[in-house]
Write a structure and sequence with these properties.
By secondary structure, this protein is mainly alpha-helical. It has five helices and two strands. A two-stranded antiparallel sheet has the order 1-2. Helix 2 runs antiparallel to helix 3 and helix 2 runs parallel beside helix 5.
């Protein structure tokens, strides 16, 4: 199996370039999350629109890298005589020769670190969006409850009647 992998030096180089693109992609995602939070706080709708368009463009361009990765995994799976889902960076590390092993290990460690940071930044962004939604809901409820008087009126038979609708002016006589 090792001799088969060693014979695929060009595919290992392709894998390293795919991993480098993955690293750049995760870094851009981190940058986009920072930008998103900043634009949300500033309430910059035009900026949010531009950011959304940029993310769509990058997503379309990144799909080519995903396809390359899947092709390389398939070729490694055939060379290693295993399933595509069994081809992992750790497993490749174990069979790669010296310098290529170090390069893959470095990319794997960097990707692991960046994805953990991305997970944390995503959580921060989710919390910000949740707080914004909660704040907007409270603000809207405060505005709509302005017309509520909380008054209790009584009918001719003495039954209490609570005003339950939100109105600014009551036309009831």
């Amino acid at each position: 199996m090792k001799s088969t992998i060693v014979g695929m030096e060009d595919r290992v180089s392709d894998l390293i370039s795919v991993l480098d693109e993955d690293i750049r992609h995760v870094r851009r995602a981190l940058s986009r999350l920072d930008e998103l939070r900043s634009l949300l706080v500033k309430r910059d709708l035009a900026g949010l629109g531009r950011l959304l368009e940029t993310i769509r463009d990058e997503s379309d361009n990144y799909s080519a890298n995903e396809s390359r990765r899947q092709l390389i995994r398939t070729e490694f799976a055939e060379a290693m005589d295993c399933g595509v889902s069994d081809v992992t960076l750790s497993r490749l590390e174990a069979v790669l020769p010296g310098e290529k092993r170090i390069q893959v290990a470095q990319r794997k460690a960097e990707l692991r670190s960046l994805t953990e940071k991305l997970r944390k930044e995503h959580l921060k962004t989710t919390m910000l969006l949740s707080d914004c939604a909660r704040f907007n809901s409270e603000l809207l409820r405060g505005i709509l409850e302005l017309g509520k008087t909380g008054a209790i009126t009584y009918s001719s038979d003495g039954a209490a009647k609570h005003q339950s609708d939100s109105v600014f002016v009551s036309f009831e006589l």
